[in-house]
Amino acid sequence: MPLIGPKNMFGKAYKEGYAVGAFNVNNMEIIQGIMQAGAEEKAPIILQVSAGARKYAGQNYIVKLIEAALLETELPVVLHLDHGPDFELCKACIDGGFTSVMIDGSHLPFEENIALTAKVVAYAHDRGVWVEAELGRIEGVEDDVKAEKSVYTDPDQAKEFIERTGCDSLAVAIGTSHGAYKFKGDAKLDFPRLEKISELLPGYPLVLHGSSSVPQEFVEMCNKYGGRVGGARGVPEDLLRKAGTLGVCKINIDTDIRLAMTASIRKYFAEHPADFDPRAYLKPAREAVKNMVRHKLKNVLGCSGKA
Ligand code: G3H
Ligand code: 13P
Ligand code: ZN
């Protein structure tokens, strides 16, 4: 099955009130774990590659690994650039076969974000590629785009931004943040703001970044086996379920994959100190990714059986 763009995936998700999972990938085991979970749940899948992941694995390697996955699946799969920092990187990914790109101009002043996003949209749409943009700032750090303080998305500005740029989906800031340390006090999202944005943009697919739940079983397992992941907290699963009913069609998950893999590898090392064959510890790590993603698809995103 060849790669597809997200149009029909999001159309169905919007209508039926669920979200598609967008999972960050940077190596073979992560891709295999996600694809196995998708196959078992018969769920649509978005594989996304950050600028940092692309630098780590190399674009050719990552695209070829995903092409290998496509040879073995009937699932609809989108290949997406996560947090594209500039036009050139978006162009390189579009030219290299990605079916969707994000241009992240959220750190720029409004007019500059519009100009950059519109430039990427013009290039992408000529080639049939989907464009996600971001308005408002989501706290946290990606390799190439940094935001120190969250600025929530203004609903009226969101409408104007979409009309003037022609972007196909929009990442909104409503209280999520990247990484494993999301909330100091109560975990809460600004749902009235999300509802307002959805009302102003009927039928338009929204995106929620920073949506890992930071399962405490992984945090505890990391810490039990020599890690120091103190005070990590994510977005409660019921809040993510609710977002899926309010126009959010794509939910981004990276940190939970990292935690699942690392917890499994730490445990393996502690229990098998004499082993040194990477296959021995990467196999259970891949299985841990699969089980975690299966849980998300089925119990959080609601997209089991929607492929
Ligand atoms: O949104 C950020 C993702 O978790 C990507 O993180 O830039 O470290 O690959 P990264
Ligand atoms: P998490 O850090 O919550 O997994 O968010 C990932 C993300 O938004 C990727 O763009
Ligand atoms: Zn993100």
Estimate percent helicity.
Answer: 40-55%
Largest sheet: 8 strands, parallel, barrel
Name of the top-level CATH class: Alpha Beta
- Residues in β-strands, percent: 5-15%
CATH topology: TIM Barrel
- Unreliable stretches (pLDDT < 50, length at least 5) are none
Lateral strand order in the biggest sheet = 1-2-3-4-5-8-9-10
Structural class: alpha/beta
| Count of folded domains | 1
According to CATH, the homologous superfamily is Aldolase class I
Which ligands does the model contain, each kind named once? glyceraldehyde-3-phosphate, 1,3-dihydroxyacetonephosphate, zinc ion
Structure annotation, total helices: 12
Features of this protein?
307 residues, alpha/beta, eight-stranded parallel β-barrel, two-stranded antiparallel ribbon, binds glyceraldehyde-3-phosphate, binds 1,3-dihydroxyacetonephosphate, binds zinc ion
Annotate the secondary structure layout.
Elements: H1 7-16, E1 20-24, H2 28-41, E2 45-50, H3 51-57, H4 59-71, E3 77-84, H5 87-95, E4 100-103, H6 110-126, E5 130-135, E6 140-141, E7 146-147, H7 155-165, E8 169-172, H8 191-200, E9 206-208, H9 216-224, H10 237-243, E10 248-253, H11 255-271, H12 278-301
Parallel strand pairs: 1-2, 1-10, 2-3, 3-4, 4-5, 5-8, 8-9, 9-10
Antiparallel strand pairs: 6-7
Bound molecules: glyceraldehyde-3-phosphate (G3H), 1,3-dihydroxyacetonephosphate (13P) and zinc ion (ZN).
Residues 83, 178, 209-210, 252 line the site of zinc ion.
Overview of the molecule:
The protein has 307 residues and is an alpha/beta fold. It has one domain: Aldolase class I (TIM Barrel, Alpha-Beta Barrel). Helices cover 48% and strands 15% of the residues. It has 12 helices and 10 strands. The strands form 2 sheets. An 8-stranded parallel barrel has the order 1-2-3-4-5-8-9-10, surrounded by 9 helices. The model has no long low-confidence stretch (mean pLDDT 96). Bound molecules: glyceraldehyde-3-phosphate, 1,3-dihydroxyacetonephosphate and zinc ion. 1,3-dihydroxyacetonephosphate binds at residues 24, 82-83, 178-179, 209-212, 252-255.
